[in-house]
Amino acid sequence: MVSRSSILSLVATVLVTISLIQLYEVWQQPAEALPQPLETVAWKGNATGLANDKVQWNTLSGEQPKLVGHRGEKAFMPEHSRASYWQAALEKADYIEPDLAMTKDGHLVVNHNEWLGSNTNVADIESLAHMRTNKTWTDNGGLIRKDNEWFIVDMTLEQLKQVRIRQDKHYKWRPQHFDGIFEVLTFEEYLQIVRNATIDVGGAFGVIPELKSPKLYNQGRSYSRFFEDRAILTMEHYGWAHVSSPVNRSAHEDLDLQPLRKLPEGTKLGPAAWQSFDLDTAEYLATHTSSVPVVALLESLPWAFTHRGLDRLSQFASIVSPWKDFFMAGAETVFQANGVLWNATEIHKMGGFISPQELVSEIHKRNMSVSPYTFYDSHQDMAYLCQTNSSVGGYCPADKADEFFYFFKQGVDFMFVENIVEANLLRSRYADKLKYGQ
Predict the structure, then answer these.
(1) Residue 71 contacts residue 80 (beta carbons within 8 Å)
(2) What's the pTM?
(3) Rounded distance, CA 129 to CA 144, Å?
(4) 10 Å Cβ neighbour count for 279?
(5) Is the Cβ–Cβ distance between 269 and 263 less than 8 Å?
(6) What is the dihedral of CA 337, 341, 345, 348, to 10 degrees?
(7) Dist CA 93 CA 421 (whole Å)
(8) What DSSP character marks residue 274?
(9) Closest CA to 139 of 276, 333, 340, 321
(10) In which region does residue 274 sit, left (phi positive, over 0), alpha (psi from -120 to 50) or beta (all else)?
């Protein structure tokens, strides 16, 4: 008998293939027939989609930057869905990203937000109506409050599996015809997809789970690192992590992980990395799985953009991942625009804010890689302060190609991208510039 998961995988693959055919048809149109946002990535010349291995980039390794499929391929499929992950693999993302949450009964699942209202049909499910509530929790940047929502942490996996994913309605250009098809996945199902894609599609796809709000998911658990250890043990089972410092295995005896599909001879899994905005969690992961690089996500920590701040991060982080405007407008301007306060005396003692033009090189000096986020589909606004405020100094990109080339020249090592097709084309175009001086 064919299993339900096999049927879902087949359906997802068919839908992804249909979507890719549609996308291919779009790219075969003459440039003048394309929607205006996509015209920015059209060019004449070599368009192989493959960067030459001999090209020297400004990255820490000298190799081309790695493209991380942000929540899979959300430009075409509902984010974090089975189809989104498969499409990211078919479009040859270097890494495929999941965001981790945890249910009331301890199952790790993938969803961007801690709540479900913005990207699922949860509001239409009568049996879950009573679970709508308000919640406040502590995050790395302070207190977070969200009202009138359905929270993953309050649901069992059985309840969550009733929910279906849909595109965020704010982005009308994203295809809506896949809404309501795909269920919320477990972390294990995500790892199975990437492992299967490695075998069936070919290519060593990287996994890069982000642990969201660990303090929220550790509340009421038997110890304060329950969420982190559960993720570590799951990654270990699937071959992407080796435990280098003891974790509390006895607290996870209920973790019932599935047998592994055997890798064919000569097939290797792709790389792995952890990421978190919670730097305590990031440091814990670095200590307990030392072979897995840790990404320090940065948004609202002024000290982290100083010389001594980078020194501190380098003690545990292998990759630094700030919001991309820190490389354009600079730390002081970004913090002012977002109402983030800082102690000027403390910042001065830590060496002062590093200028946006020097940020990549200063991170590289400490042997850390750089991974800005997020580079959107060209239909979407790039979201730089300079676009709406002419008083913001520094460089301001004119379009997506201009944006990507700026960061390629800076030497970033990873990029969180949406619309992997566009990102791959732009990376190839820049490789041609490096090789042929175009």
Answers:
(1) yes
(2) 0.89
(3) 23
(4) 19
(5) yes
(6) -40
(7) 9
(8) E
(9) 276
(10) beta
Q: Which two three-digit tokens encode residue 274?
A: 């952890």
The radius of gyration of the chain's CA atoms, rounded to the nearest angstrom, is 21
The residues with which 49 forms a beta bridge, in sequence order, are: none
Question: For 294-342, how does the pLDDT look when each residue is reduced to its tens digit (9 = 90+)?
Answer: 999 999 999 999 999 999 999 999 999 999 999 999 999 999 999 999 9
The token pair at 45 is 């010349």
Nearest in space to 21 (alpha carbons), one of 74, 76, 78, 93:
76
For residue 32 the two structure tokens come to 């003048």
d(CA 38, CA 41): 6
Alpha-carbon distance of 284 to 294, in angstroms, equals 10
Amino acid at 399: D
Which pLDDT band, with edges at 50, 70 and 90, does 39 fall under?
A: very low
Asked, as a colleague might, if the bond just before 388 is cis with ω within 30 of 0, I would say no
Q: In CATH, which of 3.20.20.190, 3.30.70.20, 3.40.630.10, 3.90.25.10 is domain 98-290?
A: 3.20.20.190
Closest CA to 154 of 220, 209, 212: 220
